[in-house]
Amino acid sequence: MLKKSFFLALLAAVVCAPRPSVAQQVFQEKAPQEKEQVLWQKLEATIGEVDHHLDGVLAVAIVDLTTGQKYLLHADEVLPTASSIKIAILAELYRQAQQGKLKLGDLYTLQSSDLVGGSGIAEVLTPGVTRLTIRDVAALMISVSDNSATNIIIDRVGMENVNALLDSLGLTRTRLRRKMMDVKAAGEGRENIATPREMVMLLEALYRGKVLNKQMTGDFFALLSVHKESYIPRELPEDLRVANKPGELEGVRNDSGIVFTGNRPFAISVMTTYLRREKEGGDAIVRIATAAYQMFDRLSRASQYGRVVSLHDTGNP
Q1: pLDDT value at position 33?
Q2: Which residues contact 35 (CB under 8 A, 6 or more apart)?
Q3: Is the pLDDT of residue 60 over 70?
Q4: Which H or E element spans position 270?
């Protein structure tokens, strides 16, 4: 009888014990997220400092591909894309390949009429003799930003189809309006344009498989990840995968891409224009991309409370 009474008393104590209030529960759930916000605020401060010191116009969009959280600075400003528009051209090429309208393995014979300024490798190849697959041509477009290769791809997929793809994704302010090195079109105001927000939206749509199937998505990002001279990865670890495309014009420096940081990948687009000193525009992109990586790298490796636990961590508690 005594044992039974003791058990009932113990059960009553457990049942009647005070529970955390709703406010306490919410605090416990939100506390780790609130800590992350401190890091976002520090990133914002760093970008604000870069913006303050840059003699030109800076626009930035960063999106956490895990949580969807964004950082935006002048992100809806329409700016020249320079060669960063080649991300959209490549996406349409892969979309048409997926639809069976063309094959990435189709051969193309380089012609003298294809050659334009900024051709890079295409300029030293033998016209009328050199044969490349369409994928090889696209690789030249992305890896060395070859303008002749880019125009070949534009002719193959159709400028209007690139813009139709962008429309289908709701990206109405990103436009391919001229071929590469078409100075006359540029002089008439027909510039290739985008906003940082729409560039990261395009990258996110591709990343989430909303444009291409799994196989095509994988090959698309494999091509976009080929090492190239660019700003986003300049001070990042050499073995880090970065799928990006920079762009340069007079007074313009841009770079847009996805940084595959552990389990916290992020999309980033940094666009600059009206630059007094173009090198400073490139340096601004490097600094912003590095600061973003450092934040996402910590988030990737840390627990929800901020402790980084490695496989070799044998320290005392």
Answers
A1: 79
A2: 305, 306
A3: yes
A4: strand 266-273
| Closest to 270 (Cα-Cα) out of 235, 246, 242, 240 | 246
According to DSSP, the residues that pair with 272 across neighbouring strands are 58, 253
Write out pLDDT tens, residues 94-136: 999 999 999 999 999 999 999 998 777 888 888 899 999 999 9
Strand 107-109 with 79-80, pairing: unpaired
182-222 pLDDT tens trace: 878 887 889 999 999 999 999 999 999 999 999 999 999 99
CA gap 21, 29 in Å, rounded: 12
| 204, 70 contact by CB (below 8 A) | no
Radius of gyration, CA atoms only, the chain: 25
Domains for the chain: give ranges and CATH numbers: 32-301 (3.40.710.10)
Q: For 269-281, give one letter per residue: b (16+ CB within 10 A) or e.
A: bbbbbebeebebb
Mean pLDDT of 5-31: 49
d(CA 112, CA 137): 15
Close Cβ partners of 165 (under 8 Å, ≥ 6 residues apart): 88, 91, 92, 95, 211
